[in-house]
Amino acid sequence: MVADHLSVTFAALADPTRRAILARLTAGECSVTDLAEPFAMSMPAISKHLRVLERAGLVARGRQAQWRPCRINAAPLKEVAAWAESYRHIWEQRLDRLEAHLQELQAKEKSHGRKSRRK
Amino acid sequence: MVADHLSVTFAALADPTRRAILARLTAGECSVTDLAEPFAMSMPAISKHLRVLERAGLVARGRQAQWRPCRINAAPLKEVAAWAESYRHIWEQRLDRLEAHLQELQAKEKSHGRKSRRK
Questions:
Q1: Of A43, A46, A57, A44, whose CA–CA distance to A11 is shortest?
Q2: CB-CB neighbors (< 8 A) of A13 in chain B
Q3: Across the 119 residues of chain B, what is the mean pLDDT of every consecutive 10-residue run?
């Protein structure tokens, strides 16, 4: 079974090093050597992460023979954002319910306070 | 190494069946049996997917002994949306560049058209 595009993207993002690589690439394209530096990781380890990101279309490599710079391609992240945003009504519903519950509690608290004072 | 929260969430979302379960749960809570139905999947297979979603905090189970209804918890999806949205400037930059490139091409096309007519 071929994994669907969104699953491949999510799997690529399920790793803090790969997300850190993407964050680094927002500053501009750079070489694999530059990318490897802050991670204290071997070049093969970084290259493996890059291949996962490339397969998901999140990173593209330049075509220069000597220096194949890496750059971010944010198009799949736009899809991720759109997918997650489609659940906004669910998390907002929950906030609305929490707010309603809190107001109910506060109303009870007040009416209880009044009754206590009346005694 | 304990996987960070966002990695656990992305890994849970990297499967079309698990995303379909979440989509189903936006209609309201339901039993595992009801959830299994549209997927033509065995109950153990669905239960395994549910455990992955529960571990990521995307699904919560009710406490009734007989019937433990599943419900969606969209809070981790809000985090995913916020994370992906933080790259919006990158995908918008790219659209801006594409637009600028297109306008340049059209301008060249026009000036070329004028020169051709002058001949």
A1: A57
A2: 10
A3: 86 97 94 87 92 97 81 96 96 82 86 66
Tell me how crowded residue B45 is: count the other CB atoms within 10 A of its CB: 13
Distance (Å) from the alpha carbon of B44 to chain A's nearest alpha carbon = 21
Question: What is the pTM assigned to this prediction?
Answer: 0.82
Substitution target from A78, A92, A94 for chain B, most B beta carbons within 10 A: A78
Residues contacting residue A8 through CB under 8 Å, at least 6 positions apart: A55, A56, B14
Question: Of the candidates B9, B83, B90, which has an alpha carbon nearest to the alpha carbon of residue A19?
Answer: B83
Q: Band of the pLDDT at A115, cuts 50, 70, 90? A: low
Of A10, A14, A78, the CB nearest to B91: A78
| Cβ(B35)–Cβ(B21) below 8 Å | yes
Considering only the beta carbons, identify the residue of B11, B88, B91 that sits closest to A14.
Answer: B11
Counting Cα atoms < 13 Å in the Cβ hemisphere of A61 gives 17
Say whether the ipTM exceeds 0.85: no
- Rounded CA-CA distance B69/B62 in Å is 5
From the CA of B50, how many Å to the nearest CA of chain A?
A: 17
